[in-house]
Design brief:
The complex is a heterodimer of chains A (413) and B (279).
Chain A: H1 2-27, H2 40-43, H3 57-60, E1 72-91, E2 94-114, E3 117-141, E4 144-168, E5 172-195, E6 200-226, E7 229-236, E8 239-255, E9 262-272, E10 280-291, E11 294-304, E12 313-325, E13 328-337, E14 352-367, E15 371-387, E16 395-412
Antiparallel strand pairs in A: 1-2, 1-16, 2-3, 3-4, 4-5, 5-6, 6-7, 6-8, 7-10, 8-9, 10-11, 11-12, 12-13, 13-14, 14-15, 15-16
Chain B: H1 2-20, H2 25-29, H3 32-61, H4 68-82, E1 93-97, E2 104-107, E3 111-115, H5 116-121, H6 125-140, H7 143-147, H8 160-165, H9 170-190, H10 194-210, H11 215-230, H12 235-240, H13 244-257, H14 269-276
Helix pairs in contact in B: 3-9, 4-6, 6-10, 6-11, 10-13, 11-13
The chains are: A mainly beta (413), B mainly alpha (279).
């Protein structure tokens, strides 16, 4: 009986590790800069607070749209956003590799200028994780003959809303964006596990759905203390109005190893309307325009959280833009995407992932008289530790890489 | 105390520097493509102004035909072909000159004229389209502007045309008047370069094919000019253009080289004759 229980617990620990880790990961609330938005901004590492002089400014700094040149219509599509996460030796000696792939049109904006006022309507997808995975492991552990896992998950956050900006001369501008925020999350997870001695198996099924909606006001300022220099600052915080979560879990385990068949069946439904608390986000940027062909920009993002179990963090980004000639421009950018989880210590237990990410971006834009076309790429890489096994302090090496191909176009109205 | 005074002066100087330069703030943020296109737009506006002056001189020499039906027809054909030029910033104007001389003219900025004599010689719409396309290419490629060296050949944003035509002073106005005279003389006496004419012929042929017209009709029209040149009915044309034989052979070469001889487009002969019946 004791052996049977141990075996059951062993199986159960695998179950927990596989079940809870995705839950942690796929909302990826641990990072704030998972997708870069826009054409110029995205290819300059998302460093745009002190520039923002096109419709993308609605998202980065609404004050910047006051300095947009002409009316415009722009849209961008992350042609392909691919992410690969590897948990080393997570299932026995096997690595657990998770791949997410999404084709997301993540920005659309219309901008109109009236003298000293600018108005914009934008649609942004700042987060999108789509994962469809079916894995089979043969003999991952000495006690497990077969392990099959199926995971289908989608987690997308949408922002849409108007922006307005006003400029006070050529030095100072003020802007406001009011986004309606909507998040849709669903996950269906299933696994089947067969013991090595053919005496037991486990079947697990889980379905989770989350709908959130709220508002995200963003206030921005931009100031030029010197003709070749601009500084920008923004403040924003999302506030949820509604949140609805439903989770269904069923678990079935049989064990005949002792000669007396044992059976464990669990079924559970959870509902919750608890609203998440979002951090207060402050961003500062500084841009230097030495010539009409060159600019440098640096941003610092600060997130102050009031959520228990989160830490305040700073993210940095920097970029440059260089015009080879008036119709061809290239851009580079570097950025950080640090985790907002507290630094782990000896008491840290699963589920927990500590991962800091760094990224680089490159882009090329071709301009015609009335339109522009941008192609770019964003690469991110990070390594850290994952606490996978429920209640255990044992860690596994965690690495994550992502590659995004950016395609975007804008046209003058 | 002295130290404090120095810091104060430094602070005041920095503030003055910041605020004094602030008037150019927005301009300094403009990127290369903004500046480039702002200048392009300015150049186009000046090109149109300049062309209007040249067009006025053409209309001073020839009377304009006041036949709304025919002028509208020529405009419709010309506007349809002009979409192939790739200069959407220009609005094209078409007119018929009431003269028996056989010719067609293009003034910079989109002013296109065809003579009544040329229309009488034409047999179908494809021939009219060919002649208009030839003139449109002169505008599209800025042949006159380039020959007058109004536009600098370097890539600097401050081009010659901006300097000369953008000036509002009396000397600038006199310079513009002088340039108008030179352009008019070029149209009536000197002509454009042989290369520009051949370029216009070749591109006109491409435009005809792109718009579905019969390219051979344009060659037929060139051939039909020959006896009239001999009779002295196209004095200006013969002075300002390469010989018909030369143009014809070059176009034939182009057609054979690119395998265009099998292309059969529309001629719209019936429609052309219906509208031009009273000529």
């Amino acid at each position: 009986m004791k052996n049977a229980l141990r075996k059951l617990w062993f199986h159960f620990s695998i179950l927990i590790c596989v079940v809870f880790a995705p839950m942690q990961l796929h909302a990826d609330n641990a990072h704030y800069k998972n997708m870069l938005i826009g054409e110029r901004a995205a290819t300059m590492g998302g460093s745009y607070v002190a520039i923002s002089d096109d419709s993308t400014g609605c998202y980065y700094n609404p004050a910047g749209i006051a300095y947009a040149v002409g009316d415009s219509l722009s849209g961008s599509g992350n042609m392909l956003h691919k992410m690969k996460t590897v948990y080393s030796e997570a299932i026995g000696t096997e690595d657990w590799v998770r791949e997410s792939e999404a084709l997301v049109p993540n920005y659309f904006g219309v901008l109109k200028n009236y003298k000293n006022y600018s108005f914009c309507f934008s649609y942004v997808v700042p987060e999108a994780f789509i994962e469809h995975q079916d894995l089979v492991f043969d003999n991952p552990l000495s006690t497990v003959k077969k392990y099959y896992q199926s995971l289908h998950s989608e987690d997308i956050t949408y922002l849409m809303g108007p922006s307005a900006a006003m400029k006070f001369g050529d030095r100072l501008s003020f802007g406001l964006t009011l986004y309606y925020q909507y998040r849709s999350f669903m996950r269906q997870y299933h696994y089947f596990l067969e013991s090595a001695d053919d005496n037991g198996y486990e079947v697990y099924y889980e379905s989770r759905k989350l709908r959130e909606d709220g508002l995200m006001p963003k206030i921005g300022l931009q100031w030029s203390p010197w003709s070749l220099l601009t500084v920008g600052m923004t403040v924003d915080q999302s506030v949820l109005l509604n949140s609805s979560f439903q989770g269904d879990v069923s678990f079935h385990n049989t064990d005949n190893s002792t000669g007396t068949p044992s059976l464990l069946t669990l079924m559970n439904r959870t509902n919750s309307e608890e609203k998440r608390k979002f951090p207060l986000h402050l961003a500062w940027g500084i841009s230097y325009f030495p010539t009409p062909s060159l600019l440098y920009t640096i941003d610092v993002d600060y997130y102050q959280t009031s959520e228990i179990g989160r830490a305040n963090i700073l993210n940095y980004s920097g970029g440059m833009e260089y015009y080879l000639n008036p119709t061809n421009a290239i851009r580079f950018g570097l950025f950080t995407n640090y985790t907002n989880l507290p630094i782990p210590d000896s008491s840290t237990t699963a589920p927990y992932e500590y991962l800091d990410i760094h990224g680089a971006s490159f882009g090329y834009t071709s301009y015609s008289s009335s339109s522009s076309l941008t192609l770019g790429t964003i690469y991110t890489s990070g390594s850290g530790k994952a606490w996978l096994y429920s209640g255990s302090t044992e860690t596994r090496k965690l690495t994550r890489e992502s590659l995004t191909l950016v395609f975007s176009a804008s046209s003058n109205l | 105390m002295q130290k404090l005074r120095n810091y104060l002066w430094l602070f005041v100087s920095i503030c003055y520097f910041c605020f004094a330069s602030s008037a150019q703030t927005h301009e300094s943020r403009l990127r290369a493509h903004h500046i480039f296109w702002k200048n392009q737009e300015a150049n186009t506006d000046r090109e149109i102004d300049f062309g209007r002056g040249v067009a006025a001189k053409i209309l001073g020499k020839y009377k304009i035909l006041r036949d709304e039906k025919k002028v509208r027809y020529v405009s419709q054909i010309g506007t349809g072909i002009s979409a192939q030029l790739g200069r959407p910033e220009i609005r094209y104007y078409f007119g018929i000159l009431d003269t028996e001389d056989i010719n067609a003219f293009a003034a910079p900025g989109g002013y296109i004229f065809v003579t009544l004599g040329a229309l009488k010689l034409m047999r179908n719409e494809a021939q009219l389209a060919g002649v208009l396309a030839h003139e449109l290419v002169h505008v599209g490629q800025k042949h006159i502007i380039r020959k007058l060296k109004l536009q600098s050949t370097d890539s600097s944003v401050t081009s010659g045309i901006a300097q000369v035509l953008g000036g509002a002073s009396l000397s600038a106005k006199i310079a513009i008047e002088r340039l108008n005279d030179l352009a008019f003389k070029m149209l009536m006496e000197e002509g454009l370069s042989k290369d520009d004419e051949l370029d216009a012929d070749q591109k006109a042929l491409e435009m005809l094919i792109a718009t579905g017209y019969d390219p051979r009709s344009y060659l037929d029209f060139l051939k039909s000019l020959k006896p009239h040149l001999a009779k002295g009915k196209a004095v200006v044309l013969s002075k300002t253009h390469p010989t018909i034989e030369f143009r014809y052979s070059k176009l034939n070469e182009f057609i054979n080289r690119n395998g265009l001889d099998k292309i059969q487009g529309k001629t719209n002969e019936k429609r052309f004759k219906k509208i031009m019946v009273s000529l």
